[in-house]
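Q: Okay, next protein. This is 2-C-methyl-D-erythritol 4-phosphate cytidylyltransferase from Caloramator quimbayensis. I've checked the sequence twice, so it should be correct. Can you predict the 3D structure?
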Amino acid sequence: MVSAVIVAGGKGERMGYDIPKQYINIKGREILAITLDAFESCESIDEIILVVPESYIDFCLKNIVEKYCFKKVKKVVKGGLSRQESVYNGLLNCNPHCEVVVIHDGVRPFIQENIIQKSIEGAKKFGACAVGVYVKDTIKVVDDEKFIVSTLKRDELISIQTPQTFKYDLILKSHEYAKQNNITATDDCALSEGYGCKVKIIEGDYFNIKITTREDIIIARAIYDSLLKNFKEEQNENWSRL
């Protein structure tokens, strides 16, 4: 059994909106709904555990899950004070028969089904798998006074995205180990590494952006426009062949 834990626990205070960023509407559909579309339609995903702020559980159920009839969303559970706590709570609410879990940011709406599938296959083979893309910019290390100390090799640098996918027992134990040893990390790969497990990287997609700032909304609208246009063109081609 494969579960997806979708983390949408942020409040999006940096955005300056009245609602959390995952509920911002882009071209007629909320960011979180666009994210869930990919997991709902992915045949390998058996269930979705949605993690949101406690005060937004009812809102999310009514305005996302019920509104769009997401059948695979089995639970909407409360998040924690940090992303790490939110993921852990999501893991605890997965089906007892879960073998592989896909962990994904709710504000990465343009994840493609084929990448989700590849991450699942990677986790089954290697135990831990993360999506990433090579950085495009030259990365500098600076000191406290903002003077350059060194230049990192660009061909050795990967920008990590989600999904990050694991054998369920492995990532649960990684979280529990971190909890017991007061270890905090910004992503689940780091927890898996800290537990002693290597993480395999698979190629991601530069469109798979995380919406964090107002500038990202502008980019997201452009990406969504492009994806909708491509979808309509493909549909028209299919109809023309009939």
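A: Here is a summary of the prediction. The radius of gyration is 18 Å. The longest strand covers residues 158-167.
Q: Noted. On to the next one.
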